[in-house]
Amino acid sequence: MARRTDFRKANTYKGQKIKGIADISYKIDGVRILYRDGKFVTRNNKVPPGLDKALTDEAKEHIKAFEDCEIFKGTFHKSNGPLQQHNPDVGCIGVEHVFPLHYGENHSFDHRLMLDRITNPTPEQIWPMMEEAVKLGYEGLVVRTDDRWYRVKPDSTADVIITGWFEQVDKNKNPKGQLGGFTTNYGKVTAFKEEKRVELWDNPQQYVGRMMEVQYKELYDTGNFRYCVTFLRFRDDKSEEAFDTKA
Question: Which of 68, 74, 165, 173 is the most exposed place for a label (fewest CB within 10 A)?
Answer without folding.
Answer: 173
